[in-house]
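[User] I wish I could look at a protein chain and see how it folds. I have put the entry right below:
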Amino acid sequence: MTDRQMPKWSELKPLLRPKPVTVNPTERRLDKALTIADLRAIAKRRTPRSVFDYTDGAAEAEISLRRARRLFAEMELQPSILRDVSAIDLGTSILGSRSELPFAFAPTGFTRMMNHEGESAVVKVAADAGIPYALSTMGTTSIEDVAAAAPDARKWFQLYVWKDRDAGEDLVKRSAAAGYEALMLTVDVPVAGARLRDVRNGFTIPPSLTAKTVLDASMHPAWWANLLTTRPLTFASLSSWDGTVAELLDKLFDPTMTIDDLNWLRSIWDGPLIVKGIQTVEDARRVVDAGADAVVLSNHGGRQLDRAPTPLRILPDVRKAVGGDAEIYLDTGIMSGADIVAAIALGADACLVGRAYLYGLMAGGRRGVARAAEILTKEVRRTMALLGVSSVADLNPSHVRLP
């Protein structure tokens, strides 16, 4: 029979460790987010459905996006034990300069709709983290204002080729004048993908005040208050648009663009050139031969051609074909630091994350973006340590097995 006794205060006292009270509601909300999926759940609660679905959704049946995430989920990491991982170096070289982390912030359109702090918040976090940030042609903060928001950040400008080539050339020249490091040409949008969530939600830029959105406003008052009391959304190309995003892209972008247009870009831009939207080995080799310094293996986050090739699947073959002639980056489906580690091991020089930081932005503005970067950084470091790897440069195909 077990003897029992009442505990003494001296025994109870060490066990009483009340959790510090976080006064700021945003910080309190973000502290509960331990993964990017947690940030996504918070973002979904705090953001109007049409805006969240624009960020979260993909084209048609959204098969491409699900396949990308499923492949990351099903890949197998191969650890090597009894390695000294007391010091982990997460830095790597991107375009010849050190990045403190093996990922960068991808270009995303209409960012100030997700949260009024928008691109300025994202570039500031990128500067703090020591990683590049790419501003989209369809951004809602000007090239110059983003440069002023974070003068020391590594900034890239993402370009779509417009039907109006003079307008595109003006953007390139403004980027050069504002000190942007690289130009990222996106080549997978000859026409817009069928983003059915946007059509079903009646999504416009900026959101229209209809009976449906007024009802939604009652459920998301903070988001609407921020939208209506901060400066109006403005774009490089227009002040507003009554149709869907897909209709806007079809109006602006040039479907006649070919590989020969890289020569035109080279004539107006003499810095590093990144080509984004590569989905086959043959196209990777073609654009590198045409002068690209880096390629991004990407199916546009599943937002263009549904059932497109999965970037992680083709990565090893592209690495073999390109060799050391160009850097290779990868996006689409990345939801964790382990995903980033796997891509680096299979041959990527770095990854681009988009939705991951947008979930953070919707969940808590600049602090939410910083939380997303913090989550990914911790996951990359922990995954490398558990793999027995102390440096990004030491990751290799032996660390990953694809199904």
